[in-house]
Amino acid sequence: MKKKIIIWIVSILVLFAVAIAGGSFYLYHYAIQNTEKTLTGASKKTPERTIKDKKWLAGVKKENWTQQSAGENLKLVADYVPAEKQSTKTVVVAHGYMENKENMASYIRLFHDAGYNVLAPDDRGQGKSEGDYIGFGWKDRLDYIKWTKKLIAEKGQDQKIGLFGLSMGAATVMMMSGEKLPTQVKAIVEDCGYTNVEDLLAYQLKLQFNLPKQPLITTSSWVTQLRAGYSFAEADSVKQLKKNKLPTLFIHGDKDDFVPSSMVYDNYKASAGKKELWVIKGAGHAKAFGTDPALYSKKVVKFMNDNLGS
Q1: What domains lie within the chain, and their CATH numbers?
Q2: Taxonomically, which superkingdom (predicted)?
């Protein structure tokens, strides 16, 4: 009888371990590997503005840039869109999760219309860049630092650089803020970025599957560490912002149900530099610009002008 109980307990534990292992690899495939996703927060319907701006981007004068990723031998690509009138002011724009530089067309046009040069990369594992996993901003932060250095090398030491990021791109620029950046980087605008990857995925795990944070977040993080070289816990905007010295504008929609709006307050509070907070009523995830394009453009451009020079 005792032997049967032991066998039964061991069998249950083995089944539990197999289920957790399977769930961990599934979550990696679902969230980290660059496959087709439902975890995007993006609307299936493309706004009319975006369609028009993508056509504009396809036809505008631009340079195609490439570089190697930081720490790995991946080919990364970017578009450099020069201002109509020669300028030393450049905004580097970082796109969102499972997106690409073309999907940032409206933001590229916003800054271009304001007289800025714009550098728009494709993150590793996305767009036309090489790679088979999503860096969630953590791996990408070092790639983007390399992009800023390439920008200075190509266009001159007199560059004045602003960083702009949307969603995961917002986390990317916030995670950059805690690193040693070129002195030419003057300001950051983040729109709907998350506090850290662990909390974001735990939130999505509950929202989409009604599952608790543990043990899957920890075990999936182990898989991600093995396969992609980073853990969920280290990919943390809040920790990086505590070292930030740059002026930063924090933007978030109060109806965001993909990256909960509560996260912007933690990010804002953590930032050690000069900072502004703008929460847009009625805006969902990555919808702040579309909610009031004129006001959004005015606010963002003014912040960049104030810190990069008008």
Answers
A1: 1-32+198-231 (no CATH), 46-196+235-308 (3.40.50.1820)
A2: Bacteria
